[in-house]
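User: Hi! I'm working on a homework problem where we have to compare a predicted structure to a textbook description. Could you give me the structure for the chain below?
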Amino acid sequence: MKRMLSLAFLSLSFANSMAAIQDVTLTIENHAFIPKEIKIPAGQKVKLLVVNKDATPAEFESKPLGREKLVPGKSTITINLGPLKPGRYPFVEEYHETEAAAQGVIIVE
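Assistant: Happy to help. Predicted structure tokens:
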């Protein structure tokens, strides 16, 4: 009986931790990020879904987050983040990083 309760508790803990993961979508269209700012909670894991609506590839890069990932044209990738400390984490679309539209920030509160 004790073993069954332990397994039930572990299953519930795992389910609760999985439910805590939040999905956030970032879209690239015409080499621009939509939205430019993303707010996520501090101390929690987040799945960042990067959707590239352009036909050409893009590259999501954030040096503060230590992430650099190719996003093929007309596709979606997932970037796992966190848990992160409060702060601002800038990112760019590396192939067009000098353009203001290809820059954004993740704000962790």
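For your comparison, note the following. DSSP finds one helix and nine strands in the chain. The chain has a mean pLDDT of 88. Good luck with the assignment!
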